[in-house]
Design brief:
It contains no helices and nine strands. With 113 residues, the protein is mainly beta.
Length: 113
């Protein structure tokens, strides 16, 4: 585990839902962050009907688990539901996305790999 992450016992995260720039109806809630390494653990929420327009490609490892709802990868033309999991190496192309019913995801961003 990164030494820069804050060790926390069970608690209600105090951070607010932050709108994702350029994506109406999509919000992030940071659960823990190591500003030195860039590792982030967060929740991401799509309101019903929210969508992205662009394909994504990151320089970091990304893990995503769908807690509630559904998320459609418009590029793959495939909808993923509650319980679905993705592991993406740096450079993996994915999206754009839409969620007709809304969804809640748990995401880990790890640039150290």
């Amino acid at each position: 585990m990164s030494k820069g992450l804050t060790q926390l016992e069970f608690h209600i995260p105090g951070s607010e839902w932050i709108p994702v720039e350029g994506n109406a109806g999509i919000y992030n809630k940071i659960l823990n962050e190591d500003k030195q390494s860039g590792r982030i653990t967060l929740l991401q929420k799509y309101e019903p009907g929210a969508f992205t327009d662009n394909v994504a490609k990151h320089t970091f490892i990304e893990e995503v688990y769908i807690i509630e709802g559904e998320l459609t990868d418009k590029g793959l033309k495939k909808t993923f539901e509650k319980g679905s999991y993705a592991f993406r190496h740096p450079g993996m192309i994915h999206g754009p996305y839409e969620s007709r019913k809304g969804c809640l995801t748990f995401i880990i961003i790890d640039p150290s790999k």
